[in-house]
Write a structure and sequence with these properties.
single chain, alpha+beta, six-stranded mixed beta sheet, globular
């Protein structure tokens, strides 16, 4: 299995809210953790949380690192309607060719806080 392509395809299905395809990526007893909101989901719950999230979305995988059965991805996800943008850092653990555990950390994209802008420190990445 090409884990890099697997994760790229996974993120395409996440952005498209493709419930049937998403189910196929996971072991039936897989666990999905969203640490920022202190939520743990079963596969079925995760698919509901993802596919019923309001709006239309796009995503772009910016980085993938593979260490044995662990794949780490950094993905930008943005709204096609409202302009919202987020980054997710995801840790995929595999058993065979399926995800057994997925730990995700989501953050809102935006400008630096005012106190740092006032100090005029840091440079834009892009």
């Amino acid at each position: 299995m090409d884990k890099k392509q697997f994760v790229i395809n996974y993120w395409k299905d996440v952005a498209c809210k493709n419930a049937e395809s998403l189910k196929e990526y996971f072991l039936s007893n897989a666990v999905i953790n969203w640490h920022n909101t202190n939520e743990r989901f079963s596969v079925e719950e995760f698919i509901i949380a993802n596919c019923e999230y309001p709006g239309k979305w796009c995503g772009n995988v910016e980085r993938i690192e593979i260490i044995d059965d662990l794949v780490i991805s950094v993905t930008r996800v943005w709204s096609l309607e409202k302009g919202d943008s987020f980054h997710a850092v995801s840790f995929f653990e595999f058993k065979g060719d399926k995800i057994s555990c997925l730990d995700e950390y989501w953050g809102d994209d935006g400008i630096a806080p005012q106190w740092r802008l006032d100090k005029q420190i840091g440079q834009p990445i892009r």
